[in-house]
Design brief:
globular, two-stranded antiparallel ribbon, 16 helices, mainly alpha, 320 residues
Length: 320
């Protein structure tokens, strides 16, 4: 097994070697801009690592890994339009730097490109790879729809929220892990266990994102803190506060952005009074534990087990 940084370099090199057409520049320049923004590249790293953990060279799954990263970034372009987000990874979002029409069309091109990449050198695994990839994509669209539905609801339950983030965010990490195992020719049962590892890792990852949006450092997190609060976004923190805040402060501030800094401060005070920062990290730790337990059912070398275990543990303490 390689170090995370080594897998990351493989991914960076593969992305830099993508030969996207030069014209029309209005379609392809935003794609290059998006891919150049970097990011953790967690999903393609998981694909390469799972492939190598199953006994194959990581390059066996390089096209599928890049396909998943391309797909992930496509969803971000469209999400930023829907969320009216101004900043992504410390830089203006595509719809701000160009316009909404460009973000939508370039995103569409990224979706198609990801499917084309998935098929490259997939061999006899092509049918299964497409089934896994397309099924995951549909789950993500379902999750996004639930997320949009939640915007007009103030009765969202924690259970509904967790199912939404499972679909919108977590299944793609599961897909990334399972795809690497699939390309290595691992048995279906092993692919499922890798998928479950990735899903639980993804749930922990999204909950940590929720936490960082309210309590993170904007310089390391890559965007302004408090955006979820200002947008009344239904996160685990907000839903719990709406259920438990006996003062009614949180509900009274919904839809009120006359003083953004004051709103963020007041909502955060309620979160602190309810001990939500500590409680969300307890939940994050529980999902990390479940992810690691899935590794017990996979035949892994000690080195591979340490890699996936450390990756899960670090996800609970990341600051960006």
């Amino acid at each position: 097994m390689k170090e995370y940084s080594e897998y990351l370099q493989i991914i960076k090199d593969a992305i830099s070697n993508l030969r996207l057409p030069e014209q029309p520049a209005g379609l392809y320049d935003p794609i290059r801009y998006t891919l150049d923004c970097g990011g953790k590249r967690l999903r393609p790293v998981l694909t390469l690592a799972a492939c190598e953990a199953m006994g194959k060279e990581p390059m066996t799954a390089i096209h599928q890994a890049i396909a998943i990263e391309m797909f992930h970034n496509f969803t971000l372009l469209h999400d930023d339009v829907m969320d009216k987000a101004d900043v992504r990874r410390g830089r203006p979002t595509v719809h701000i730097k160009w316009n909404e029409e460009t973000a939508i069309l370039s995103g569409d091109a990224m979706l198609t490109t990801s499917t084309m990449l998935l098929a490259v050198k997939a061999g006899e695994q092509l049918a299964q790879a497409l089934e896994l990839f397309n099924g995951t994509a549909m789950n993500i669209y379902e999750g996004q729809q639930y997320d949009m539905d939640f915007e007009s609801r103030n009765d969202v339950t924690v259970e509904e929220y967790m199912e939404m983030i499972r679909l919108k965010t977590s299944v793609l990490l599961g897909c990334a892990c399972a795809m690497g195992a699939l390309m290595a020719g691992a048995p279906f049962e092993t692919q499922v266990r890798f998928f479950d590892y990735g899903v639980n890792l993804g749930l922990a990852f999204q909950l940590q994102d929720d936490y960082l949006d309210t309590y993170g450092n904007p310089e390391t997190f890559g965007k302004a803190i408090g955006g979820d609060i200002l947008n009344d976004k239904k996160t685990w923190l907000l839903i719990m506060a709406m259920n438990e805040d006996t003062t009614g402060t949180v509900r009274s501030l919904l839809g009120d952005n006359t003083n953004p800094e004051e709103k963020i401060s007041k909502v955060r005070e309620v979160y602190n009074a309810l001990n939500l920062p500590e409680r969300i990290h307890e939940l994050i730790s529980a999902y990390i534990d479940t992810a690691i337990k899935n590794l017990d059912n996979i035949e892994l070398s000690p080195e591979a087990r340490v890699f996936f275990m450390d990756l899960a543990l670090k996800s609970a303490t990341r600051d960006k």
